């Protein structure tokens, strides 16, 4: 693999130094992906998210082969809910609230089966897992320090959901100076129209928050 690669992205191609690039996989947890978890308690059709799994798996395999830093994130809360703002726990009218017992353990609680990452994308021992209480991966986490430690300047971002945790993380990262390339088919939303708009918002205005590319374009750049 070359030291750098050019990804056919929108709004423009982008050349990345691979040694300064990390893959960030957002919240591919059973709580969002499977029936009985947090996503479904909010009334969502969780089958909408399945389409992101294979593209992420393909990029993850290529990135592992290339030796890039891999970061997985998980949204969730401590068992005593001390890191869960009441405004979040009380929000809306879900069938089960954060912390309530569900079929995969307590909803969105660290250590429960539902909080874990789906088997297809399970982290290796050597990979970084960031537990985050919010939607953005930088808020109240050690992510910034870890990326600085590894000299990372560029992020390949994928996961769920496009308009919530992916967009929030990309916006946080953009403000911190990272070049973010969002993998379009490696993201998904319970609402296909929000997925489309979430990607458009990132790449509009000359790439106001970052770049958007298909997984095939990322794989091609990595293989070049
Ligand atoms: C949500 C997320 N949608 N990971 N979380 O609550 O996008």
Please, could you describe this protein's structure?
The protein has a single domain, classed as Rossmann fold (3-Layer(aba) Sandwich). With 224 residues, the protein is an alpha/beta fold. Helices cover 32% and strands 22% of the residues. Helix 6 (162-175) runs parallel beside helix 7. The strands form 3 sheets. It has a 6-stranded parallel β-sheet with strand order 7-4-3-8-9-10, with helices on both faces. A two-stranded antiparallel sheet has the order 1-2. Strands 5-6 form a two-stranded antiparallel sheet. Dicarbonimidic diamide is lined by residues 27, 32, 75, 135, 160-161, 164-165. Residues 27, 32, 75, 135, 160-161, 164-165 line the site of dicarbonimidic diamide.
Give the H and E element order.
Answer: EEEHHHEHEEEHEHEHEH
CATH C-level class: Alpha Beta
- Which second-level CATH architecture applies? 3-Layer(aba) Sandwich
What is the molecular shape? globular
CATH level-3 fold name? Rossmann fold
Give the mean pLDDT: 98
User: What kind of sheet is the major sheet?
Assistant: 6 strands, parallel
- Count of strand segments: 10
Percentage of β-strand residues: 15-25%
Whole-number count of domains: 1
CATH fourth-tier homologous superfamily: Isochorismatase-like
Rg for CA atoms: 17 Å
Structure ligands: dicarbonimidic diamide
Count of DSSP-assigned helices: 8
Instruction: Give the N-terminus to C-terminus distance in angstroms.
Output: 6 Å
Low-pLDDT parts are: none
Strand order in the largest sheet: 7-4-3-8-9-10
Task: Assign a percent range to the helix content.
Answer: 25-40%
Structural class: alpha/beta
């Amino acid at each position: 693999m070359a030291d750098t690669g050019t990804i056919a992205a929108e709004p423009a191609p982008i050349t990345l130094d691979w040694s300064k690039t990390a893959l960030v996989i957002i919240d591919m947890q059973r709580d969002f992906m499977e029936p009985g978890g947090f996503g479904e308690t909010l009334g969502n059709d969780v089958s909408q998210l399945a389409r992101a799994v294979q593209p992420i798996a393909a990029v993850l395999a290529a990135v592992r082969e290339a030796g890039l830093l891999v970061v997985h994130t998980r949204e969730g809360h401590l068992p005593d809910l001390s890191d869960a703002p009441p405004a979040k726990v009380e929000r809306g009218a879900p069938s089960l609230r954060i912390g309530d017992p569900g079929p995969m353990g307590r909803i969105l609680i660290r250590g429960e089966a539902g909080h874990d990452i789906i088997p297809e994308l399970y982290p290796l021992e050597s990979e970084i897992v960031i537990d985050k209480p919010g939607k953005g991966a930088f808020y109240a986490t050690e992510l910034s320090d870890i990326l600085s430690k590894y000299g990372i300047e560029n992020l390949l971002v994928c996961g769920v959901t496009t308009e919530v945790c992916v967009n929030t993380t990309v916006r946080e990262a953009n403000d911190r100076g990272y070049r973010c390339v969002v993998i379009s088919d490696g993201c998904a939303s319970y609402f296909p129209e929000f997925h489309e708009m979430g990607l458009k918002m990132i790449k509009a205005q000359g790439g106001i928050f970052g770049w958007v590319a298909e997984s095939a374009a990322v794989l091609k750049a990595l293989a070049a």
